[in-house]
Each structure stands twice: as structure tokens, then as C-alpha cells.
Specification:
The chain is of the alpha/beta class. It has 8 helices and 10 strands. It has a 6-stranded mixed beta sheet, sandwiched between helices. 35% of the residues lie in helices and 26% in strands.
């Protein structure tokens, strides 16, 4: 079983804490990371993906500090940023081929992996289409395809349904449910309905600190929104 431990992570800019003494652990599960804009979600994700260095604290991947095993850790990581550069002039196939090379996948294995992730994300018919011509929902699915092309044990998605219409949002939730098997999936979002639909657990951040870390009660519709409003909005 994969384990990611986040121990007392703090990131500070001058006198302002973006993340303050954040501690939690992740096993093979889907976790929703919720918070309003500026709560610290993206800062924490950038630290988890090694794009940003924390001021203090440590992250352990299966008991080892990720800064000591960075190359191995990154090979086990899939990341879909909120604002991704998808190279609009590339075809879908060219873009995924490029990402395969970036992630160090063997050239002989890339074609097979591309076919696999295209089928999984229902993009096979778009393989020759320019990325710039894709709909918003297709671009989000392409984001997942590039994130899972290296078959990661940890998948991090930053605001994956932002800007999608209701139908595409439902399709995307179904995709996340499919991709979540036997891996850690961390979804940063402000949309309570998405967390309730796909996650096993929710972590609520506010002003860089954890307000709540709890399993999700699937039997109570609207539970996450109510919890979020109570903890963050004090309603």
C-alpha cells in the first residue's frame, strides 16, 4: 500500500503563512482538499509536487523523505494543474507522446500507453485533433490522460472540474472514480458536490490551516457543503 505522510508543512511569505503546520497522511484513497480561494490548496499541492519548497516540515513517501528520493518519487506522481499548458498546435497524440518522453517512459512503450490512456479517457476518436480544438471537457480528460500515462501511484488534480458544464462534470466524476483504483488521489477543489460524489475523505483548509479532516458520510446528501459552510463560513 502506498503511503504519503505530510508532517508539519509550513510555507511563509514574509509575515504571511500560505500553509501553516499542516499534517495529514494519505493511503490508497480519494481525498478532497477543500478551501476557498487563498486557503492554501495550490501552495500545498505545489509543495507535494516539488514545484515549491516548504520553509519547514517534511513529506515522506513510503517512509522516505521525498527530497532524498525526488527522481523516484516524481516517477510515481501524476499531476494535473489547474492552469495547464497543453500546446494547442500539437495533436492529442503528439502531446501525449511528448509527455511520455518528459516522464521518461521507454519509447517502445509510449505508443501502447497512449492507446491505453486514450481509451480510458474516451479520447480515442480525438487522437488526430489539435489540442486547441478540444472542448473544455475533452481538455480536462486530456489532463487526466497525461497525468496517468506513467501509471502513477499518486494522482494530484487541482480544480479538475472548474469551468465544466454540469454534464461534463458528471462524466469527469465517473472518470475519477475509474482512475482511483489502488492509488492515492488528491483532488483540490472548492466544489462540495464533486467531493461528495468521488471522495472517501475530506480535508478542509482555511488560511493555510486544517479545519477538518474526516471521512465522508455518503448517506447524507449535502453533508460536505453543510460541513464546509459550518467550518469556513461559520454558518
Amino acid at each position: 500500500m502506498t503511503m504519503l505522510q505530510i508532517n508539519n508543512i509550513t510555507k511563509k511569505y514574509k509575515d504571511t503563512y500560505a500553509v501553516k503546520e499542516v499534517t495529514f497522511s494519505l493511503n490508497n484513497e480519494v481525498v478532497g482538499l477543500m478551501g476557498v480561494n487563498g486557503a492554501g490548496k495550490t501552495t500545498l499541492i505545489k509543495i507535494l509536487t516539488t514545484l515549491l519548497k516548504q520553509n519547514s516540515g517534511e513529506i515522506l513517501y513510503n517512509g522516505e523523505r521525498i527530497d532524498k528520493i525526488e527522481k523516484r518519487y516524481l516517477s510515481e506522481l501524476g499531476y494535473m494543474p489547474q492552469y495547464a499548458c497543453y500546446y494547442d498546435d500539437f495533436t492529442v497524440k503528439e502531446f501525449l507522446s511528448y509527455m511520455g518522453v518528459i516522464k521518461g517512459i521507454d519509447k517502445k512503450a509510449v505508443k501502447e500507453k497512449i492507446d491505453e490512456v486514450l481509451e480510458f479517457t474516451n479520447l480515442t476518436r480525438e487522437v488526430k485533433k489539435k489540442v486547441g480544438a478540444l472542448s473544455g471537457g475533452m481538455r480536462q480528460r486530456l489532463g487526466v490522460a497525461q497525468a496517468i500515462i506513467n501509471d502513477p501511484s499518486i494522482l494530484i488534480l487541482d480544480e479538475p472540474t472548474a469551468g465544466l458544464d454540469p454534464v461534463e462534470r458528471i462524466r469527469f466524476r465517473q472518470l475519477i472514480n475509474s482512475v482511483a483504483q489502488n492509488r492515492i488521489v488528491l483532488i483540490a477543489t472548492h466544489i462540495a458536490e464533486d467531493v461528495e460524489a468521488v471522495a472517501d475523505r475530506v480535508i478542509i483548509l482555511n488560511s493555510g490551516e486544517i479545519l477538518e479532516d474526516t471521512p465522508i458520510d455518503k448517506s447524507q446528501k449535502g453533508y460536505i457543503e453543510e460541513l464546509f459552510m459550518r467550518k469556513v463560513m461559520k454558518v
